[in-house]
Write a structure and sequence with these properties.
With 166 residues, the chain is mainly alpha-helical. The chain has one domain. It has helices at 4-7, 10-39, 54-75, 85-106, 115-165. It starts with a helix and ends with a helix. The chain contains 5 helices and no strands. The radius of gyration is 21 Å and the shape is elongated.
Length: 166
């Protein structure tokens, strides 16, 4: 994990994560609503989330804030320094699923007794999480290549300077 997180103030990191999560949540819900409306127009009610009233946006904001805290807690080394990356990812997935399920029940985002809706939610959550983890791993791989290239350039430059000095 990056030590750069330790240098950033906690509140700034929390607000950055909150902004990212909130924005992506609103976009994902909007996209899902468009897809449901387009492909299943006969379904009148699947989720209250698609109504996007001010109450729903506030609920999503609180959800995003709590999830942002869990992201900082589990992904950065600010609080937990020695934990395997995959364990962090699994704990974050579990935390996000529990938080979302609690919000869904409390605020009646889905009909509680509709198994098909909950299965759809679980499938969408897994797909989104796999996509997110894949992007994160791709980012790490590209950053690793970048830093390896920079290190190789630095070593070559250092060797050139040492040879010229001799």
């Amino acid at each position: 994990m990056d030590n750069e997180y330790e240098k950033k103030p906690f509140i700034l990191e929390l607000m950055r994560n909150f902004t990212n999560i909130f924005t992506l949540s609103v976009l994902a819900i909007s996209f899902a609503g468009l897809m449901v409306n387009h492909y299943i127009p006969d379904v009148i009610y699947i989720s209250v989330l698609f109504t996007f009233g001010h109450n729903i946006l506030l609920q999503i904001a609180v959800f995003s804030f709590i999830l942002a805290f869990f992201c900082i807690l589990l992904i950065t080394e600010r609080f937990i320094s020695r934990m395997r990356f995959w364990l962090r990812i699994l704990l974050l997935f579990f935390s996000a699923s529990v938080i979302f399920s609690v919000f869904a029940v409390i605020f009646k985002w889905f009909p509680i007794d509709d198994l098909q809706t909950w299965l759809g939610f679980i499938i969408c959550t897994i797909i989104c999480y796999v996509f997110s983890v894949s992007l994160t791993l791709l980012k790490f791989k590209l950053e690793g290549k970048k830093y390896n290239r920079l290190l190789a350039n630095y070593k070559a430059m250092k060797n050139n300077h040492e040879q010229k000095a001799n």
